[in-house]
Design a protein that fits this description.
Blueprint: E1 2-7, E2 19-26, H1 29-38, E3 46-48, E4 55-56, E5 61-68, E6 73-79, E7 82-88, H2 93-102, H3 118-124, E8 127-128, E9 131-132, E10 137-144, E11 150-154, E12 175-185, H4 197-204, H5 209-223, E13 231-235, E14 241-242, H6 244-253, E15 260-261, E16 267-268, H7 271-277, E17 284-285, E18 288-290, E19 297-300, H8 306-324, E20 333-334
Parallel strand pairs: 2-5, 3-5, 4-20
Antiparallel strand pairs: 1-2, 6-7, 7-12, 8-9, 10-11, 10-12, 13-19, 14-16, 15-16, 17-18, 18-19
Helix pairs in contact: 4-5
Bound molecules: uridine-diphosphate-2(N-acetylglucosaminyl) butyric acid.
Amino acid sequence: MIYEKISLKKFNTFGINVKADHLATFKIEDNAIHFFRQRKASEQKYLVLGGGSNILFTGDYHGTIIHPEMEGIAMEGKKGNDIVISAGAGVLWDKLVESAVNNGLGGLENLSLIHGHVGAAAVQNIGAYGAEVKDVIERVRAISLDDGTVREFSNSECKFGYRDSIFKNELKGKYLITKIYFRLSTQPKLCLEYGSLKEELSLLGSISLANIRKIVISTRQAKLPDPDQIGNAGSFFKNPIVPDAILKEIQKKHPKIPVFKDRSGGDKIPAGWLIEQCGWKGKRIGDAGVHERQALVIVNYGNATGVELLDLSEKIRKSVADNFGIKLEREVEVI
Ligand code: EPU
């Protein structure tokens, strides 16, 4: 389906009311292939938008928004305890996690209740509670926006990093992901080291996929605002990995600063902590605010514009730089 001059309010979790010149939705991969083959890429301006849960629009979009709606979760193969399943890019992320957990397949449970659609999970390498989706992605199927050719990317070809992949870098704006293949397991290696996950599990009695999912959901619900109630896009910034010298300097004044080891071995400081130390937690300027329970989340209390939310984020960034000498990097994409 192709729509013209359509409001994007329902297509972004900040709830920003901007318009797109065109919006093209695809339920079937072949239709998308046909669409891109027919058009000269050099004459088009495209933006692929899944659940819109990691994007901030600061004005109308003068181009075509591509919205994948490919559905379906399927079992693709089995080898010992490993089960490969596929999911269409338009499947709601948490529906996939729920289905995996209900079928006794481990690997996605720590990623429960993350907003957005399956396609974006690979772009962003979504992560939570010690797990990252890259750990279970086998391959990613995508269509070239240039000429409609189909390509499958192996896990290593996706060049995953912390909230990062090839689709955010050299192939940014070049591919539409249509399907992802995940390698799950009936005997998964559980990831329980984050925060108090283990202790909370022991209170529930047994360690099971369903109980991990239950705890992750209740932790998220306690800390993070629901975008259906208050507009937001989860963490606005990435947690910075800081050089030893800066960390030592901060520790002189703040010996209790929380520090986590990044997978690459670097020291990661929670951006939420830095922002809270600068006094921003719970602050509000008009309808743009900093969430009262998680300072890393910028919220739209109603009618904030994208520019107002961006301005607030820049003020936060400046004060963290002034106070700690750390430049925060956005996780949210600004359009
Ligand atoms: N903290 C504060 N003040 C705050 C928020 C956090 O001091 O306002 C400190 C606390 O010490 C807390 C620590 O930061 O123990 C970590 O906080 P939290 O567990 O909430 O995690 P985070 O590092 O702020 C990251 C991800 C989240 C993910 C959680 C849980 C990033 C950018 N964010 O947040 O991902 O859910 O860990 O694993 O890596 C997202 O990407 O949108 C997202 C929500």
